[in-house]
User: What shape does this take?
Amino acid sequence: MNHKHIKQIDITKKSSVDEIMRQMEAGGFGAKKLSEAATILEAAIKDKETKVFLGVAGALVPAGMRKILRDMIADGWVDVVVSTGANITHDIIEAMGHHHTVGSEKADDLELRDKKIDRIYDVFLENKAYEDLETYLHKIYADIPKKKMGVREFLFEIGKRIDDENSILRTAADKNVPIFCPGIADSAMGFHAWSYILDNELSVDVFEDMKEIMAITWNSKNSSVFILGGGVPKDYILQAMQFSPKEHSSAVQITMDRPEHGGLSGAELRESISWGKLGKNATHATVTADITIALPFIVAALKERGL
Amino acid sequence: MNHKHIKQIDITKKSSVDEIMRQMEAGGFGAKKLSEAATILEAAIKDKETKVFLGVAGALVPAGMRKILRDMIADGWVDVVVSTGANITHDIIEAMGHHHTVGSEKADDLELRDKKIDRIYDVFLENKAYEDLETYLHKIYADIPKKKMGVREFLFEIGKRIDDENSILRTAADKNVPIFCPGIADSAMGFHAWSYILDNELSVDVFEDMKEIMAITWNSKNSSVFILGGGVPKDYILQAMQFSPKEHSSAVQITMDRPEHGGLSGAELRESISWGKLGKNATHATVTADITIALPFIVAALKERGL
Amino acid sequence: MNHKHIKQIDITKKSSVDEIMRQMEAGGFGAKKLSEAATILEAAIKDKETKVFLGVAGALVPAGMRKILRDMIADGWVDVVVSTGANITHDIIEAMGHHHTVGSEKADDLELRDKKIDRIYDVFLENKAYEDLETYLHKIYADIPKKKMGVREFLFEIGKRIDDENSILRTAADKNVPIFCPGIADSAMGFHAWSYILDNELSVDVFEDMKEIMAITWNSKNSSVFILGGGVPKDYILQAMQFSPKEHSSAVQITMDRPEHGGLSGAELRESISWGKLGKNATHATVTADITIALPFIVAALKERGL
Amino acid sequence: MNHKHIKQIDITKKSSVDEIMRQMEAGGFGAKKLSEAATILEAAIKDKETKVFLGVAGALVPAGMRKILRDMIADGWVDVVVSTGANITHDIIEAMGHHHTVGSEKADDLELRDKKIDRIYDVFLENKAYEDLETYLHKIYADIPKKKMGVREFLFEIGKRIDDENSILRTAADKNVPIFCPGIADSAMGFHAWSYILDNELSVDVFEDMKEIMAITWNSKNSSVFILGGGVPKDYILQAMQFSPKEHSSAVQITMDRPEHGGLSGAELRESISWGKLGKNATHATVTADITIALPFIVAALKERGL
Assistant: This one.
């Protein structure tokens, strides 16, 4: 066996994030996986011929991960984003000046209902944000070109009209990083489009984006997957390769979901090798962790490494 | 406190599923939740003025749940279905005559890749199924009306053209039960639409369904939620009520996801009370279980009860 | 590949527990594992030359599993029991006539404290039970022989003095099934021994049981492991084989714990093959499920099968 | 509501562990819990009148956490340790000069068996270590006083005889920090005691420690609980207060176990308020995380804070 000795991790008052992360490489369990994730991601970002696909699921923006995600785009770490509708919605809500707040997950939901405060575990948002969002979005919808488009272009048009440099959507538009959101209908953006199209025209096609995502996968020399959570973004990023002659060359996933019940979110990354989504020689690591814990330390370590 | 005595569950060789399920009501932990789920669902199905919304996520069709889901529709248990694209895809694949097989989750994915067999935990499918699916779907796509439609109508048109009475999609079309699939682009159906629209016309609008799902929620007297898994189906069913003056009157969820990391899939149902998605007096139960274990026993118990 | 076709599970109003369980064998995910667990356990119980080791962790007695566990011993299904101290304590508490009750896991713990009610998730117990337990145990302790003994013999002496035919401890004493409890000091029995030995003599040796458990493993022709939960009982049952020339010939585990963080409770059973605890050809299955859901259905299926 | 605004976490190349940890306090989900855990632990360690009880479960020493745990004792952070037998065993094995190694959790257990290598997820140990351990322990057992003692004293006697300043057991003996191990019989130490007592005398009493742990709880002005994992150490530390007029004044737990199935390991800390184990006004936080990820960053943050 070509095993490495476990080195007992040694923490001093001067230990930096990356020093700890590198020590974890000679540890076991989650520590080892976290360290491997950083190493794989570092290599993918540094290689100019590798396209990095970022999948974003879970309520990351409400929990304080917005700036980190925005910076990953701004700093050129990622080339393609696939997101749930929720994170985009919450990005816009923050761009409008609304704030998420943090309290206790034990809050009384009946009382919150009376106060019109929406709860996401221990994070809260005034329901008024959704009313304001309707007005805000309708104004933007009225401004964007009246032509049939895909969701990617639709989000690009919205992003250009958001006046907040900390916005994920705006930053992606500025940097020309495509954001795909195959489940956009399942979001407040979708429901507010409903009230809009009652009286106005808006034409966003379900399948239009396929051409673009397929073109990206067919034309990528190498590609790396960085999945936060699972869900539709994970599936979409991986599946794009199933129907392409290429395959992803490395992959990292951070999730709390588990594999035994067969859901894709918790599926082992090696499973996607059987499908031709991930390469047979691909490096990959799954970190079983809360993203809000793992992501900040991974990003800090990579910045220390000069990224 | 108005507590009931725990009664020690007593199993004999004649214990039927429902006898066990009813005993579980006086037990604790998961047993109690399973029993409550059956009771809530029974009441919802029996009440003619309650619309039952079924959410289907996770690879349920591959794992052997297709007939159960199909029967729930055929027997009039559910009024609205919201599904992932994957379950619909696998339903069609079985309708075409392909079979899923079961083996070991320890299978070598590199070997599977060489044999062109796709793995979903311990369930397998020849990749050829996806090639055949393309041909099958293109034929159907060519046959359906050339007009702008929503995903619901698109799936209805496909369902009518599936020649398999055990098909979920076909049964729903026959029974006029709408199937919504907000994330359809993220499925083999979506990717095969891509190859189709390279040369042909197909116009499925992202936001078109909003009118229908909103009309259903606005017009429902009572409504009950039965969520298998989580993901987009859970979000869509609940969110439809956020933007409606109504609210769901009861809810059941079976999931293995957990709440602490803030993802919607594992979120407590009571959280949706704060949002106005679930009523303040709604009965609700979350069963922390593998759906393939919990669902067959719940369905068997309800059938014993005469449903 | 030697794969079996998935058969879509079909439930009718006459489906018995075992009919469903047998159908699950041709399903995937948790359903398949549950079915395999029943099959492995059935074979182990039926083989007269196989010793069945039952590991009991988690608050199973409080949640309503006491009669099931007691019957497994009374019906000769198990030959050796390894338990946490808690299940034994709660068995005695029920034997004394105290009742566990069931309510909501959302109960206010501060209010419960004022009412002197102890909470175990959604199961409750008056704290007075522990006061009565002290009196009850001190009386028994005074009656048992004054000699150095191991925990196994200590529990046997207590069991003989419990006047309740539904008691696990009493039934095991009657059937001469040894109950090991290596962590007994960590239980109310241990803490009440403390108040006893302040004024009285009691001599229970930590290592005395080793001789007995080792003799059992050395002399077993075949042995099968049925682990409910994990913890000390899992470790003890498996480890007894590490230091024996024999090995367990089959194994079933029902647990909600997961393997990635390296704890033994969630460790895959195959891991114990590397240690020489489980045989290289052993059949084994881990069911990822709440024991209170899975166990009653497994037991019902086995009883239908004539056990 | 007295909610704080979520502040989007901002990572630069100069962000130190503690700067990130402090930012997490204004985030949500796991990040917030991690930050709270550090704050609670910091306060407990700094308060000279607070006794800190450390519970250690899970294979932490094999995974690289030995030095961190040892330093917590050496630096005076903890006053009482309750451990599983496994961590103590692996501490001794490292003291003997054996090394754990790290590889892949996908390793073939049958092959490992042939090579006599034991697997703990992705960590490995030559089985020879256990043979050497027997010789090593028997020598120590022969040297320690021949009198009836509790496990705490037994471990103290062993610790004094270990020649390794990085040993947890030795450091605890040097610093006079008691190590309790109520489940010691369930460990290689226990099984090697068996082979010893076949020919020699050794008398370790199960209940003897009760006097000491109860004396500590009765005499503590304040006490704080720091639970790594769960299992017997968690139960023992909390239960010691159930039978004492005092109660723990703060508590932190890091675990991946979940509460719904009623096991103590995953139980919410607030549950122990109902039992009188934790004070009604106690601060407490549960971090749902792999200990090998969370612990190094917590320790690093506290060292930055001057501890």
Remarks:
- The first helix of chain A runs from residue 17 to 24.
- The first strand of chain A starts at residue 4 and ends at 5.
